[in-house]
Amino acid sequence: MSTSSLSCSATCLVNTLLLLAVVGVAISKSDFSFAAGGFSSAGTRGADLLAGTTSDSRESNSDSQHYAPTTVLEDTPSSKYHIFVASKPDTGSTLLVNMLLGLFDKNLEAKVGFLHFDLTIVKPEGAHIDDTVVTKTHIQDLDVLSTHFQDDYDQVFIIVPNRSEARLEDRYCSHPYYANRVLCLEYEDFTYSDPTKMKDSISYVADRIRGSFPYFGKVELLEDNAMKRIQDMEAMVSIMAKMDFSAVDDRFGIHGGHKGRKKDGQ
User: Fold this and answer.
1) Are strands 121-123 and 113-115 parallel, antiparallel or unpaired?
2) Is 197 helix (H, G, I), strand (E, B) or coil?
3) What is the pLDDT of residues 117-165, one digit of tens each?
4) Angle at Cα 255 formed by Cα 159 and Cα 157, nearest 5°?
5) Does the pTM exceed 0.85?
6) Tell me: the pLDDT tens digits for 50-99?
7) Which of 40, 186, 229, 264 would bridge with 102, disulfide CB 3.0–4.6 Å?
8) Which residues pair with 182 in a beta bridge?
């Protein structure tokens, strides 16, 4: 082999190695960019996952003045969730939704939102579903409820208070399909007649949430905050006891004569 051929081979080899090095750097930079801001298998940008937001939530934040922060508690998992209290009337749902608002929302002035059967918020007037992380409804088809909101939230949880014959279908409470998403509570287990048992009832609800929803397993729920909210609610119930039923308190979602109604479990 001639000297010129050997020189060409050496030069070609060096050029090839340089080309591979350049391609390698480009691939490395591309991989870094993908990891930092690319799309995950779920279609969420990596940078958004690190920040605890998604492109959808950013759009909601800019489009809606009512949009609430992704998390209320500092150690809540980094995603957007919502909790519905779904039941038939007269099942203790008003007490329960106020307990939950106290447990999850530091704002003691938060107002109870009510979701109508047409899946729109009708109470309080002008309210938006993201004003709080907990909403009350008497919609009894939980599949319709969760499906309707599955694109709006990363996680949708439903808590069902049941009382005597005022119960939702048993499958929601017993079928494995609804595990980790639906929690059923018996009226007698979270209500109280002795005010000194109020704290125990709140702790019971908090423990059931942590035990049933692994998503909140390591979250320190705001039990003292819930206690204060329920005390304020009880005071308002007493004030409104002799008022006409048409009188409404938006903060707690209670009507006049609430305690004196034939069924006081609402």
Assistant:
1) antiparallel
2) helix
3) 999 998 998 899 999 999 999 999 999 999 999 999 999 999 999 999 9
4) 15
5) no
6) 233 333 433 333 333 333 333 444 444 546 899 999 999 999 999 999 99
7) 229
8) 158
